[in-house]
Amino acid sequence: MSVYANLHFALEGLRPAATLGTGASNNSNPTSRGPCVLVLGPKDSGKTSLCKILTSYACKQQRFPMLVNLNPSEGVFTVPGTLSAAPVSDILDVEQGWGESQINGPAHLHPKQPYAHFYGLESPLTNVNYYKHVISRLALAVSSRLDKDEVVAGSGVIIDTPSTLMERDPGHSIVSSIVADFNVTAIVVVGHERVYSEMVKRFKDKKTVSVIKVVKSGGCVERDASYLRSLQSRSIHDYFYGSFKQNLSPYTVTVDFSAVKVYRIAEESALQNTSVLPIGEDEVSAVTKDPASEYLVPLEPSTILQNCVMAVLNASREDSIPSLVESEVLGFVHV
User: Fold this and answer.
1) Where are the domains positioned within the chain?
2) Among 277, 243, 252, 263, CA closest to 312
3) Where is the Clp1 C-terminal domain (predicted)?
4) What percentage of the chain's residues is helix, strand, coil (to nearest 5)?
5) How do residues 15-36 score in pLDDT, each as one tens digit?
6) Which of 86, 165, 201, 278, by CA, is between 20 and 30 Å from 77?
């Protein structure tokens, strides 16, 4: 824990001094922003716990850090399958992990207001191009908030990542995209010597990025697949029915399928298979299309939608697929 505390003090020294208080101002100057920290590590190495520690310590210093979750298998302030970002201005709830957001109803502590984009797949490697696209859209939203709020900008950004980014290809290319999109200034590698060395080599010419290695916490335990599924089920349950502290009462709405359009997220294995291309279309003509049009696949109404959780986008039924992939999430429905 002393290593994590020293890391916090180092980050605190990089934060501008005059960022306490309230109010918004134009803060488009990157030099007035706090550190942007990217946390990497293998599975069950304590990445999320480290993000919680750094966030909690920053809040105790009267900072409002921006927390970014890039792990689609774990929902932070929302359901699994989304990438989210939210400024944290209050202590975290030790009983509920990250605490409550406004989507869970009234909260005992300060509710969080997450900005979410739907990825819809469990692993970033299932559709790398779409994952990078969602990251870029989320980074634009975070940058817009930092430009308008000097307190959040001065407090910095803390980014949690999935363990799949530890793979050389394409995991490390995704890391490079995250560093470029979020203007990352520090990469923290938890308990992995090889990845630390590779990150040092990859960003040795980028003087604005520091690579730091910290030890794995002794309290980390390995979680099996059934336990992770139970966490995901609980997160979805809490979204619709609330927590044990605050119950919610979801209601049923009958909607005609002619009034909505349903899409599923395409997997790269399907996109690369020429057998699924329309008749008369080859790989060359498919590549020349707008890549955004291949991120989503129209889905005909059928029993396959039963018991599915679907995201409702901030878009109209007539919008094109390129417009849909630019839209943020308004909420979720269970069929």
Assistant:
1) 27-214, 252-334
2) 263
3) 248-335
4) 40, 15, 45
5) 886 455 444 444 455 557 899 9
6) 165
